[in-house]
Q: What sequence folds into this?
C-alpha cells in the first residue's frame, strides 16, 4: 500500500527506509517487521524528502549509497546532515554501509547520525537498533516529555 494511503494510528511505530540494495532492504524489512514497525520505503531522494517532512518517523534507516554511487552524492544523507537538529530530533537515524565499524560513536558523529552499521553485522541489526533507540530515549526522554506537556498545555 502506498505510504500516502496508509493510515497511521497514534500507537504505530513508523520507520522510513532509504535503501537501494534489494537484499539489504529485505533484511531490514524482516527485522523491523519483527519489531512491529510500519515501514515506508523511499524510492529516491525526492520521495525521501517528501516522506520525512510529512511524518515524524521515530526510526530512519539509510544506506550510505542510497540512490547514488558515492556517499557525497547521497542527497538524502546530505539533507539530513545539514538539517537543523530541531527538525530531526524526533528520529533515530541509522546509516548502513561497508565503510563503518558498527556502533562506532565517532563515525556516527562524523556522519551526523545516531548509529553506523557495517553490512556484515546485519544479523544483529535488531539488537543494535533496540540499543540505539533505548539510548536515544534515555538521553532525550525528559526533553520529549516537557515538549509534550507544553503541547498539551500541562503545567511543568
A:
Amino acid at each position: 500500500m502506498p505510504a500516502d494511503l496508509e493510515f497511521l494510528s497514534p500507537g504505530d511505530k513508523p520507520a522510513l527506509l532509504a535503501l537501494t540494495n534489494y537484499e539489504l532492504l529485505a533484511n531490514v524489512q524482516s527485522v523491523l517487521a519483527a519489531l512491529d514497525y510500519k515501514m515506508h520505503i523511499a524510492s529516491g531522494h525526492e520521495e525521501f524528502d517528501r516522506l520525512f517532512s510529512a511524518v515524524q518517523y521515530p526510526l530512519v534507516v539509510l544506506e550510505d549509497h542510497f540512490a547514488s554511487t558515492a556517499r557525497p552524492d547521497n542527497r538524502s544523507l546530505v539533507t539530513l546532515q545539514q538539517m537543523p537538529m530541531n527538525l530531526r530530533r524526533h528520529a533515530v537515524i541509522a546509516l548502513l554501509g561497508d565503510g563503518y565499524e558498527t556502533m562506532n560513536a565517532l563515525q556516527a558523529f562524523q556522519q551526523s547520525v545516531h548509529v553506523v552499521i557495517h553490512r556484515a553485522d546485519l544479523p544483529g541489526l535488531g539488537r543494535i537498533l533496540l540499543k540505539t533507540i533505548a539510548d536515544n530515549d534515555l538521553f532525550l526522554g525528559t526533553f520529549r516529555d516537557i515538549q509534550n506537556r507544553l503541547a498539551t498545555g500541562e503545567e511543568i
